[in-house]
Amino acid sequence: MFKQKVVLLLAMMVTGTLVHSQSLTEKKLLKTVDELRQAMLNGNRKALDAIAADNLSYWHSGGNLEDKATFIESLASGKSDFVTLDLTDQTTTISNDVATVHHILTAKTNDGGKPGNVRIGVLLVFQKYGEDWKLFARQAFKLPTQ
Hints:
By secondary structure, the chain is α+β, with helices and mostly antiparallel strands. The chain has one domain (2-142): Nuclear Transport Factor 2, Chain: A (Roll), CATH 3.10.450. It has 3 helices and 6 strands; from the N terminus they run ααββαββββ. The chain has helices at residues 2-42, 45-51, 68-76, and strands spanning 52-59, 65-66, 82-95, 98-111, 114-129, 132-142. Strands 2-1-6-5-4-3 form a 6-stranded mixed sheet. Helix 1 (2-42) runs antiparallel to helix 2. The model is unreliable at 6-20 (pLDDT under 50).
């Protein structure tokens, strides 16, 4: 009976540690997603560079592809200019050192001085490098009109 209680206690401790660890991992991922949102909104070159993986594939809903350097330059230069940037209906999945994040991106833009509105679906793929999540790939897609 004593052995069963010890085994049960150990199992509960391990399970609790795994759940706690996973929630810390997810919290770090969500923090990185918010840091990415802020960096895109502000065109913060340093923050964008820190979050994007060196081999980033950044796909726009219109089909054009940007690498890391082009992605950063587009936002930092104001070519792509977010006036507002909101993420809703967000879900995450984490598997070892890879994570996916799905959300709806709604924004007011001022690309090249031309005001606009955007509402697209986005899939982000992150990979963990050490303790940091890096944006490895992004695919945006058009949503049906409301």
